[in-house]
Write a structure and sequence with these properties.
single chain; 188 residues; alpha+beta; 7-stranded antiparallel sheet; 4 helices; 7 strands; globular; disordered N terminus
């Protein structure tokens, strides 16, 4: 079986395993809700960094149980690939030197997590897969340098940060099947 087909099957199987084998996680009952941050006129879905840390740790635990310890934690996505997917590749510099530097160093990182959501009606928790996105600073594909995660904050900070109490990550939380077309060959 090819890797491109195997990974989604493993994720689905591990999610089913996680849902069946999970016990209530009472230590997360006071977990803060996702926050919305207003930057200029654009509303961005933010997720508190401390909550994202717990969710990514939970994914790693489930990964060890359901995937046999697969060390998969995150994906680094080149900015040029992301811009092309969004049909914004016209914004990539056209000057050859600038273009090469942009493609080599511009990236985001997408961490996988599992959020624990309290359900008072059954006194248990529901679990939801999450993707957390951060900016990557000082990465280089050609030099195999992973760079540093840059967490978002309401303050004007451009340097890499280890993460403060007010920091957040971007939260993409609408998984398929509800957000994907059934006509895609990747969704069949």
């Amino acid at each position: 079986m090819r890797t491109s087909i195997l990974f989604p099957l493993i994720v689905v199987a591990s999610f089913g395993f996680a849902m069946i084998s999970c016990s209530p996680d009472s230590s997360k009952a006071d977990q803060p809700a996702p926050l919305s941050v207003q930057l200029d006129t654009v509303l961005i879905d933010g997720f508190p960094l401390d909550s994202a840390k717990a969710a990514t740790a939970r994914f790693r635990r489930f990964s060890q149980l359901g995937l046999g310890g697969t060390p998969l934690k995150a994906f680094t996505v080149r900015g040029a690939d992301l811009m092309e997917a969004l049909d914004l590749d016209s914004l990539i510099p056209t000057n050859p030197k600038q273009r090469k530097a942009f493609i080599d160093t511009t990236a985001i990182r997408v961490y996988m997590g599992i959020d624990s959501i309290p359900d008072a009606s059954v006194k248990k928790y529901h679990y939801a897969f999450k993707l957390f996105v951060v900016n990557v600073n000082k990465s280089s594909y050609s030099k195999k340098e992973p760079g540093h995660d840059v967490f978002f904050t309401s303050k004007q900070v451009k340097a890499p940060r280890l993460g403060d109490a007010d920091d957040y990550v971007l939260d993409f939380n609408t998984p398929c099947p509800t957000s994907c077309p059934t006509s895609s060959p990747l969704n069949n």
